[in-house]
Structures are given as C-alpha cells and as structure tokens.
Amino acid sequence: MTALADVGYYSRRQARWRWSEIVFWLAALACAFAFPSRYLIMTDIVRLGLFALSLDLILGYAGIVSLGHAAFFGVGAYAAGLLAVHGIINEPVIALVVAGLAAAVLGFLTSFLVIRGVDLTRLMVTLGIALLLEALAERFSDITGGTDGLQGIEIQPILGFFTFDMFGKTGFFYSLAVLFVLFLLARRIVHSPFGLSLRAIRNNPLRASAIGIPVNRRLIAVYTLAAFYAGIAGALFTQTTALASLDVFSFERSADLMLVLVLGGTGYLYGGLIGAVVFRLLQEVFSSITPQYWQFWIGLVLVVIVLIGRQRLHRWVLWAPNLIVRQLGGRKAIVAVPEGDAP
C-alpha cells in the first residue's frame, strides 16, 4: 500500500499545473494580438507543434522511433480534403475528427509491424509505410489529384459561424484551440497509470513485462493514439490551407519532425511545442539571410546543441531569471528542468 500511495502522490504532483505552463499558453494566445500580420506562420507553428506532440508520445514516452510519421499526417490531410471536395462532411470539426480516426485506423493496422522490431527495424518499417502511401497516392491520381494535389477544396465555416479568411486569423485560433484540447488530453494520459507504464516500457521492456505490464498492448494503444494526433495535424493543414498534395507524405516532413524534437527535447510534452517555435523561427531567420543555405545553419545549431548539451543551455537561459529572483526576494532560484519534466 505504501508503494501505491507513493505512486499516486508522484502522479498527482507531476499532474499539477505550474506557473510556467500557464505563462506558456497565455503567451501563445497573446501572439495573436502582438503579431496580427503573422497569422499564417503562427498557424504553421501550431500545426507543427501538434505534429511533433504526436511523435513525442511514441518516441519520448514509449521509445518507438519513427522516420515515417508523415504517413499519418498525409492520411489525415487527404481524408479532410476528400471529405470537403465531395461534400461528405461539411462541418470542419467533425471532418477533423473523422480524418484523425482514419489515421488512427492506419496506425492500429501498422502497429503490429512496428512493435515487432527494434529501433533500426522500426525506422525502416515506418519509413517504408510512408513511402508506400506516397506511391499509392501518386498511382491513384484520379482520387488524390496526383502531383497536382486535390483541386477545389472549400472548407465551410467552423460550426457554421467562423469563416476561414485569407489572412489566417480564423485558422490560427482554430488550430490553437485544437492543439490546446489535444494537449490537455495528452497531459492527462501521460500522467495516468497508463503513462507511467509507458515510461517503464521505454526504460526496460523486459522488466516491465516481468511485473505484469502488457507491453505489446500498451505500445499498440499509444501508437494508435499518436497516429490519431498526427492525422488531426494533417487535417488542420488541409483545412487551413485548402491544399493536399503528395508533399504531405514526404520524407522531409518526417525528418523535419525529428529535428523539431532534437531542438525541443523528448519525454515532456512541451518539447515538441517549443521545438516547433524554435525550428520555424530559425528557418525564417536563416532563409531571409541566406535563402540557399538555411539548412546548413540549422544543422550547425543542432551540432552546437549536441556539443554543449541541453542541460547546460537551460542553465545559461535561466541565469538572468535566477539573478532577478535572487535580487527581488532571495527566494529559491529557478532550476533547469531535466528532460522528461514539464517546463
């Protein structure tokens, strides 16, 4: 009973909202009013953050590596596009959920292949699934539009009231609301006994199996959930851009996702969100300075992060806040957050 009580106390303590989390979401909302001319890029950041969150669920919490996560993103994007083009479901929110469920079905069916292998096998299997879907989308061009993409996508007003505008204002608030709701769900999941069992599986699958955790069923469940999240991100892409092309299945999309998690860190839900902001801002800055070589500079930033270490960077970033806290009241300084905890 003592051990169970300790686990329950730990879970409740980790699930409490921190002031930094509240500040994060208030800052995200404030960006809508601080940068009214940048709705399009902010919407792109929100979509990328949700996409990275989906990968972090399997990589950071279950230890499943993937180089083909764009497969689920693409299925969600095309599902939302086809539903809109053929007028099957006109309500964007319902279409969003249906597109996510379509990606979840694919995730469930392919999870049996993914959980059987080790890291290298999983990389190849997930990459192969994404490449296969891209080839199928190109083959059946009469349905997907082939290299030209889906034509004539018209997204109806959200809930019948909020119309998508060319400046991206509606798309940003819509995407941010979807991200926040799904983040709350993911936060509840990772701090539940289910989430704790995933951490145990990630650390030592054999030991987790020995203490009675159904390893395969847990991995299938979280892989399906991650596919659902990625499908939602893909559907948001189609609904906010009125575009769905073969690019949604591309390897570059999955590779960029890995870079986002390298920048933000894995094993805590804010890693993908912070990484998405940093990645898009770096891309924006470097592409404006040297349009042809922006990838080189992002690669250089990644090398610096690896050489210096994320923990040391955290200490450097928090040096000024710690100094201010000590000067104001001598209260306990802010400490760098270890990987795996919320910011």
From TrEMBL:
<feature type="transmembrane region" description="Helical">
    <location>
        <begin position="257"/>
        <end position="282"/>
    </location>
</feature>
<feature type="transmembrane region" description="Helical">
    <location>
        <begin position="22"/>
        <end position="41"/>
    </location>
</feature>
<protein>
    <submittedName>
        <fullName>Amino acid/amide ABC transporter membrane protein 2, HAAT family</fullName>
    </submittedName>
</protein>
<feature type="transmembrane region" description="Helical">
    <location>
        <begin position="171"/>
        <end position="190"/>
    </location>
</feature>
<keyword id="KW-1003">Cell membrane</keyword>
<keyword id="KW-0472">Membrane</keyword>
<feature type="transmembrane region" description="Helical">
    <location>
        <begin position="61"/>
        <end position="85"/>
    </location>
</feature>
<keyword id="KW-0812">Transmembrane</keyword>
<keyword id="KW-1133">Transmembrane helix</keyword>
<dbReference type="GO" id="GO:0005886">
    <property type="term" value="C:plasma membrane"/>
</dbReference>
<dbReference type="InterPro" id="IPR001851">
    <property type="entry name" value="ABC_transp_permease"/>
</dbReference>
<dbReference type="InterPro" id="IPR043428">
    <property type="entry name" value="LivM-like"/>
</dbReference>
<feature type="transmembrane region" description="Helical">
    <location>
        <begin position="219"/>
        <end position="237"/>
    </location>
</feature>
<feature type="transmembrane region" description="Helical">
    <location>
        <begin position="294"/>
        <end position="313"/>
    </location>
</feature>
<dbReference type="GO" id="GO:0015658">
    <property type="term" value="F:branched-chain amino acid transmembrane transporter activity"/>
</dbReference>
<dbReference type="Pfam" id="PF02653">
    <property type="entry name" value="BPD_transp_2"/>
</dbReference>
<feature type="transmembrane region" description="Helical">
    <location>
        <begin position="92"/>
        <end position="115"/>
    </location>
</feature>
